[in-house]
Amino acid sequence: MNFSIIGGDARQLYLASLLSNKGHRVRLWGFEGCEGPLPCPRFPLKDALADADAVILPYPALTASGQINAPLARSGITPAAILADLPRGAAVFGGRLPERFISDCAARGCECSDYSLREELTVANAVPSAEGAVQIALSELPCTLNSCRSLVIGYGRIGKLLSELLSGFGGGVTVAARKPSDLALARARGFETVCSEPLEGLKGFRVIFNTVPYPLIDRRLIDGCDGGTVIIDLASDPGGIVPDAAVGSGVRVIRALGLPGRFSPQTAAGIILETVENMLRERSVNIQ
């Protein structure tokens, strides 16, 4: 098959290598500024899209300003520019795609799908996300995880894996969750638990990991933290911290998004590839 990879970061470079190793033709746009061991072939956008059977956009596909997410490109590009050269009938994939772009692709006879909504991707991405969160904690704390108490807010995919990883360091781990079933499961796994709605206090925890995409942590809770507490917010927008709640408090808040791409781009690329291959097979496309 002929694949076009438009924009992205190291994940997309690894993805191109994986596809090429499988015998597919791969053309890329948006990697003029890349450095490192992976090859960075460069094509004009029109050539990168020419004869493409499938086009893979990054995760997330767009920046806050509405351009294609291409941090390694030397110039920006809009979705409209891609649509102008998009081959009719090509399959288009991307992460967190806006509905307008999906409908514009359909108008050109191209089926456009959001791979970030796929269960296999979200489940698999929980592993590098949890490991990345631990790496941040190890680099930011002046003490060992073994010697401090940790709080994990939310007991979903990432919260479950993260709690298990933290327990391996030997420090005390507490889980805050809303559902009684999640609290019961966390207790069965040996963790202390507290109810997250309402969250009564954060005192006694040296590091707090939030996975809930709702601003649960306000100034009242911040003021109840011990001095030097580090809060690592893993939740997607709007995040779990009320804006500016920690200003002047002595509590450090670290917004930690896109951890698979930051810490495990090769693994993240394999997850995207598996997901896209599954989606193509569901369309009865023969992909080896």
Share of helix among residues?
Answer: 25-40%
* Strand and helix order: EHEHEHEHEHEHEHEEHEEHH
How confident is the prediction overall: mean pLDDT? 93
Largest sheet: 6 strands, parallel
**Strand line-up across the major sheet:** 8-7-6-9-10-11
Number of strands: 11
The first-level CATH class of the largest domain is given as Alpha Beta
Unreliable stretches, pLDDT < 50, 5 or more residues? none
User: How many structural domains in the coordinates?
Assistant: 2
Helix/strand-derived class? alpha/beta
Q: Per CATH, which architecture of the largest domain?
A: 3-Layer(aba) Sandwich
Counting DSSP H or I runs of 4 or more residues, the number of helices is: 10
Query: Which percent band covers the strand fraction?
Result: 15-25%
Q: What is the terminal separation in angstroms?
A: 9 Å
Structure, briefly:
36% of the residues lie in helices and 16% in strands.
